[in-house]
Amino acid sequence: MASRLSQATKHRCFISYHHADEVEVERFINTFDHGHDVFVSRGIGASMPGDVIESTNADYIKRRIREQYLNNTSVTIVLVGACTWSRRFVDWEIAASLRKTATSAPNGLMAITLPSVASNPDREVPARFDDNLDYDRGYARWWKYPSSTDSLASMIEDAFRRRTSKANLIDNSRQLFGRNRIC
Question: How many helices and strands (H and E) does the chain possess?
């Protein structure tokens, strides 16, 4: 019997996270990408294939996120750690993911709680993500850490399908973070 994974489409996913969670993010990528055929990871940072954006110019950074990192991805995965909700780059990445342009549709949007905060009842998703979260009815969904490659493949496929089936629910009206919040 073929697994669900062998029947799933492998999507290119942008990984959004707070740099303080780098070790867990690297573990996630090593567990589910790199030859495991669940997804192809794209993102900004040491765990990702690509350069860190070396600039303090906000407009330049946002443009680079859209052009260099979100380009050719269809799903954005926000890996939720203790302070992910407070980071301006995470907010900008989510905003860019939800943006429809002349050449691209918005990305599907999902969040996964990292193991380090799974038992913390006070954990939070970024506010822009929360604007799009209405559990099963919203554009975005927030998941527990996947227990298998098949479960992650299902989560990603769900986010990919919501790009069209729930696109009318996208709320990207929140003003962009000007700076990081205090965590």
Answer: 6, 5
CA angle, residues 39, 144, 127, in degrees to nearest 5: 90
Each residue's pLDDT tens digit, 47-70: 444 455 666 676 777 777 777 778
Listed ranges 49-53, 75-79, 172-176; the one with the highest mean pLDDT: 75-79
Under 8 Å between Cβ of 171 and 132: yes
pTM above 0.85, yes or no: yes
Instruction: Provide the pairing of β-strand 108-113 with 141-143.
Output: parallel
- CB-based contact 63:99 (threshold 8 Å): no
| Tokens at 67, concatenated | 């052009």
Residue 170: its pLDDT value, please?
Answer: 96
What tokens were used for 28? 């996630």
The answer to whether the beta carbons of residues 60 and 94 sit under 8 Å apart is no
Residue 37: left (phi > 0), alpha (psi -120 to 50), or beta? left
Q: Give the residue from 88, 85, 53 showing the smallest Cα distance to 69.
A: 53
The fold of 4-169 is Rossmann fold (3.40.50)
Report CA torsion sign: 83, 36, 12, 144: negative
- Structure tokens that stand for 62 in this block: 């946002």
Domain residue spans of the chain: 4-169
Please give the Cα distance from 132 to 140 (Å, whole number): 5
